[in-house]
# Entry
Amino acid sequence: MSGSIGYLGPRGTFSEEALLDWLGAQQADRTRAYPSIAACFAAVDAGEVDEALVPIENAIEGGVSQTLDELIAHHGRVVIRGEVIHPIRHQLIGAPGETIAGATRVLSHPQASAQCGRWLQANLDGIPVDPAHSTAEAVRMAVEFDDGTVAVGNRRSSEIYGGVILAEDIMDAPDNCTRFAIVGTGEIDSDQAGDWTTSIICSIVKDRPGALLSILQEFALRAINLTRLESRPARTGLGHYVFFIDAEGNRHRDLPLQAALTAIGEGGIAEVTSLGCYPTAARSS
# Structure
């Protein structure tokens, strides 16, 4: 593993935390922060970095729409080369001297604030919750403004930007975690041993009753387990969707998976686009 790798910045985001945990803190000089998920993809596409780590799915809130949309926009050029699963522990952070009672506004990335929705409603009901580009940016702004603004972020961001933790572990589920995708411009060596995941997009060729069922049956008939199924608007009109599917297996060497993908594509059910084939990260039981 070598080369530069981007992440959703600035310093102190959960993306940086997950990346440093995966790489090792001693390799921090290989990392480069970008202001948005779209900027991460653009940097990979342009060759500014070899890879980028971006959030793709959360245990509470599901798929990260920005990442899914960028995978569509960059398909054929940027693919998933790996995944990292990282625990997510949210803290409520403010400027020194701030208190929960004095909070006038909550800032955070929409995914983070949604993951703490019940806590925020129970403890800061009526306080506006505004979006920020990242949790780290929210913490930086809360400390800088020092006006009653508080932020949802991680402990590392509080230390980096000089904040104080007003409430610990405010996420709605104690086992909250996020799956991060490592994206690059080419698939990795498919001969590696171990469990693999194949990610695809299925675009229905012609809308008809049972179209999605027909897709799923091709996997079921061959006893292929699907670990994720999610729809996103195809951006071609109301009612038109594409389906993101993660299947257990390596499409380059597993014959049943190859047969299922061929049947879907050649059967006129849907157009199949590969998003990558990569080693599966260990899931907690």
About this structure: The chain has a mean pLDDT of 92. Residues 91-167 form a domain with the D-Maltodextrin-Binding Protein; domain 2 fold (CATH 3.40.190.10). Residues 255-266 form the longest helix (12 residues). The first strand starts at residue 5 and ends at 8.
